[in-house]
Amino acid sequence: MFGKSLVVDMVNRSAENATDRRAFLRSAGFAGLGVAGAGALAAVGAGEAHADEASDGAVLNFALNLEYLEAEFYSHAAYGKGLDDALTTGTGTQGGVIGGRRVPFKTTSIAQFATEIAADEIHHVKFLRKALGGAAVSRPAIDLKTSFTAAARAAKLIGPNQTFDPFANENNFMLAAFIFEDVGVTAYKGAAPLITNKAYLEAAAGILAVEAYHAATIRTSLWNRGLVKETIAISDARDSLHGGADSDQGIGYPRGDKSWFANIVPADNNGIAFSRTPGEVLNIVYLSPDKVTKGGFFPAGVNGAVNASS
């Protein structure tokens, strides 16, 4: 059914490294692939010298790490529990989750938003795991406790001796969600040029759109509660972590009369959202402006080939 070149491309682009590609071929069954399968195995072995170039699988696994983080955060907030164990296995070091509990929501709409977003993020984890198959990375260790305090201190939302609990109340929950959602949108946009498989690219674009809906919902809810200064502080902290231009944006900017213009959509002068490279995204979630491989929300680092900040 498939030509040899197509089989080689499918294997190379759907698995993260040589070991995963060989496992993919074994699970697919050489008998089913026939002569084309045998030729593909030889071609994969010959092409391992190019493993330093991030494959589609490596990019999707990078995204999966971020989806684990978002899914755990929202699942704990909405349901009071994290992901099912069956959704956390895979390659790399599997880790646990520190912190997280159900938010005592008092506003029906905010509770419903949290529940819907939690369901979306869990579906993202399931989708990416299915797309990656045996190459999917496991959930790395995630910190939903001390990491938020460190982030809040960096943004000067709290003092050096205070703590920040994102699950204590609705405002804290939405400010914590603001940290993730804008990063998720810019991460998917920045990763898009790295994906060569059109089917994967379309799926990533679909996830990006959902993350953008989430981000707009959180930004609008924060605006309605007057938490503009707090989002600007978080935005400035993110800029300081990933370096480069002052591209991040809060949910408003001053009018000059002590009031604010709304800035629900963080777009440039062309109405286009900005991008972050995977390294810049990791600067933020590792809570470090340096080149590191762990820290912050991922105390032991993320799993997969794309794991170092800029």
Characterization of this structure:
The strands form 2 sheets. A two-stranded parallel sheet has the order 1-2. It has a two-stranded antiparallel ribbon with strand order 3-4. It is globular and about 55 Å long. It is 55% helix and 3% strand. Mean pLDDT is 85; it is low at 1-15 and 18-52. The protein is built from 10 helices and 4 strands. The protein starts with a helix and ends in a 25-residue tail after the last helix. Strand 1 (97-98), helix 5 and strand 2 form a beta-alpha-beta unit. With 310 residues, it is mainly alpha-helical.
Short synopsis of the structure:
The chain is mainly alpha-helical and 310 residues long. It has 10 helices and 4 strands. The relative contact order is 0.13.
The chain-level mean pLDDT equals 85
Helical residue percent? 40-55%
Q: Can you list the strand order of the major beta sheet? A: 1-2
Number of helices: 10
Tertiary shape: globular
Going by helix content, strand content and strand pairing, the class is mainly alpha
- Describe the largest sheet: 2 strands, parallel
State the order of secondary-structure elements, H for helix, E for strand.
HHHHEHEHHHHEEH
What ranges have pLDDT less than 50 throughout 5 or more consecutive residues? 1-15, 18-52
Q: How many strand units?
A: 4
Radius of gyration (CA) equals 20 Å
Question: How far is the first residue's CA from the last residue's CA?
Answer: 43 Å
- Beta content comes to under 5%
Q: Quaternary arrangement of the chains shown?
A: single chain
